[in-house]
Write a structure and sequence with these properties.
By secondary structure, the chain is α/β, with parallel strands linked by helices. It contains 14 helices and 19 strands. 33% of the residues lie in helices and 21% in strands. It is globular.
Length: 445
């Protein structure tokens, strides 16, 4: 029996895709290798948001090609534009560039993998209908769509993943229902911009999605999945959102539903309107802050995180200063701060000058990160003396790690039997980014 290995890079969507890739391979009679030394085939499920992400893949592929028994090497994910092999007529550029690469496939062509490998018949099944080999029994990622229509100037995703297309709500609900029936307690809905679910031009043509009053298709989907509360679903999360589609009605829906966790990730990318305009983000910082204030009004304890790019094309000291001021006002619990780098094929790489020096980008990154540490510390302190419910994800040497309702990592002394369970923890302190606490062992069944 042949053995495979999948190396996964990038976001949660990529990890969800990998679960489906494993299902297809195992249906073809293969089984997962414990390491590259015993793998007959290695697939790289890739991210291409940054050049650095692609460089990691190139480096790893080069190393794997030197293994004693060279495995079959393939790439999928955001780096691939055209499915094919070395024998294909019109090849993806990756096959011309990487001579040791054997095949590539777009993730939506996963049903064609058997034919690509020459070891069976293609299922030609809708990619989303492939049942994933879930990594965890109690936690699961469920994609609700693919592609993106936002075309941010710095982002390659619309070109890599294609136009935005939403899954049928019945299909999503059935996947969630089966997960819960099999013991899953936490589901995270995934999409490039989940709150635009059902709103794209392609979606409108299907006739499946419609507004109900002011409630968007995404709000309706959340309400439907929330009905699984009585069946065993304890936690519902989603990522990632776009400010353009984050309506007042959606905030009210999130606040109302029982399973929705009090944590929202809402990427802002910059705190200055001119920078946002150059990024093609289609909202102003005033509109963004209005959303933040609405969230805090409806859900005072809600944790909020964001994404920010420093050193974007043309960003002046004054524009960066306004991003810093926005950070202070928003008081984020966490943020993923990155330094801009041109991504080949994007609008910014084609039409804008990368004119902020590497040294200045580093300085701005550190300044913003220092601001984040201060706001994160204040938000962590609010939990001291309170009890939170932690879904324990791992245990090692007597210490449990997991996430609270607020998506904050919590560390406490516990037993291995707690893994996969939601347990009450009294918060006694914190580290730089992590809460620490204590749990009564005897009360955990």
């Amino acid at each position: 029996m042949k053995k495979y290995l999948v190396r996964t890079y990038g976001c949660q969507m990529n990890y969800s895709d990998t679960e489906r890739i494993k299902t297809v391979l195992e249906n073809l009679g293969m089984r997962e290798a414990k390491g590259e030394q015993e793998a007959d085939m290695i697939i790289y499920n890739t991210c291409s948001v940054k050049q650095k992400a692609e460089d990691k893949v190139y480096g790893q592929l080069h190393n794997d090609s030197k293994l004693k028994q060279k495995p079959l090497l393939g790439i999928t994910g955001c780096m691939v534009r055209k499915t094919g092999t070395r024998k294909s007529g019109k090849k993806d550029k990756l096959l011309n560039r990487l001579k040791k690469l054997d095949f590539v496939f777009r993730i939506e062509d996963l049903g064609e993998l058997a034919g690509i490998l020459g070891i069976g018949e293609n299922s030609l099944e809708n990619y989303f209908k492939i049942t994933p080999k879930y990594t965890s029994k109690v936690q699961a990622f469920v994609p609700i769509g693919t592609g993106c229509d936002k075309y941010c100037a710095y982002c390659i995703v619309p070109f890599a993943r294609g136009r935005e297309k939403s899954r049928h709500p019945d299909e999503i609900f059935e996947e969630c229902k089966k997960l819960v029936e099999n013991g899953c307690v936490e589901i995270t809905l995934l999409g490039q911009t989940v709150d635009s679910y059902g709103l794209s031009d392609m979606d409108k043509k299907t006739g499946i999605f419609e507004m109900k009053g002011k409630e968007t298709p995404f709000g309706q989907l959340l309400r439907r999945i929330d009905t699984l509360k009585g069946k065993g679903l304890e936690r519902l999360r989603f990522t990632s959102s776009h400010p353009k589609d984050f309506t007042d009605q959606l905030i009210e829906t999130i606040a109302e539903l029982e399973t929705l966790m009090p944590y929202i990730h809402l990427p802002v990318q910059a705190g200055d309107n001119e920078v946002l305009k150059r990024m093609n983000r289609t909202y102003t910082i005033e509109q963004f802050m209005k959303i933040i204030n609405k969230i805090k009004k409806e859900m005072p304890d809600c944790a909020i995180s964001t994404d920010v790019i420093v050193g974007f094309c043309g960003e002046t000291d004054e524009e960066f200063f306004r991003t810093c001021k926005m950070f202070e006002k928003a008081e984020f619990d966490h943020a993923y701060i990155s330094r801009y780098s041109p991504r080949m094929g994007t609008v910014s790489a084609k039409t804008m000058e990368d004119d902020v020096s590497g040294e200045e980008k580093a300085r701005r990154w550190h300044r913003l990160n220092d601001l984040l540490k201060r706001t994160a510390k204040r938000n962590l302190k609010k939990h001291i003396g309170k009890k939170v419910n932690v879904l324990v994800e791992k245990w090692e040497d007597g210490v449990c790690n997991g996430r609270s309702e607020y998506f904050k990592e919590v560390q406490f002394g516990g037993s291995e039997k707690m893994v996969g369970k939601i347990v009450p923890v009294e918060i006694t302190g914190h580290k730089e980014w992590i809460l620490t606490g204590a749990c009564n062992f005897k009360k955990v069944k």
